[in-house]
Write a structure and sequence with these properties.
mainly alpha; 143 residues; 5 helices; 44% helix
């Protein structure tokens, strides 16, 4: 199973995704609080991931806490195959939550620009391999 994205965990903890995001966070909370199924009876202490979940909920913008929860979920999944299966199912659903806003407003104003411009939302792997054309006031003349 792929680790649960730190960004996804932080966003859901912070209330992103509206009602669906809230339901996904509640589902993760219920999942983490289920008893461990590794057969050793457990230590009676907090379940792996429970403290990390609470800490992230207290400070959803803290990337370190989100990373700690992601790691704890991976450890717990390695210890408990039933948890791993349930976490994978939860993760698939959580990936469908729209975390960011749906609207895009791109504006270029106030002058002349002489470089590539890419407008839109959610770019991944964008690369510019062509140099920008020279500005008109810096054009090389053939003297």
């Amino acid at each position: 199973m792929d680790p649960v994205s730190v960004g996804l965990l932080a966003a859901l903890a912070g209330g992103a995704g509206g009602e669906l995001g809230r339901q996904m966070w509640t589902g993760l909370t219920v999942l983490v609080r289920r008893p461990l199924r590794r057969g050793d009876g457990g230590s009676g202490g907090p379940l792996p991931g429970e403290d990390e979940l609470t800490r992230l909920q207290q400070a959803p913008g803290d990337g370190t806490r989100a990373h700690a929860l992601s790691t704890a979920l991976a450890v717990r999944a390695a210890l408990d195959t039933e948890f791993a299966t349930a976490l994978a199912a939860w993760h698939e659903q959580a990936r469908l939550v729209r975390i960011g806003g749906g609207s895009v407003n791109n504006t270029i104003s106030g002058g002349s620009y002489y470089a590539p411009v890419l407008q839109g939302r959610d770019f991944q792997g964008a690369t510019f391999n062509v140099p920008a054309p020279p500005r008109p006031d810096q054009a090389v003349t053939g003297e």
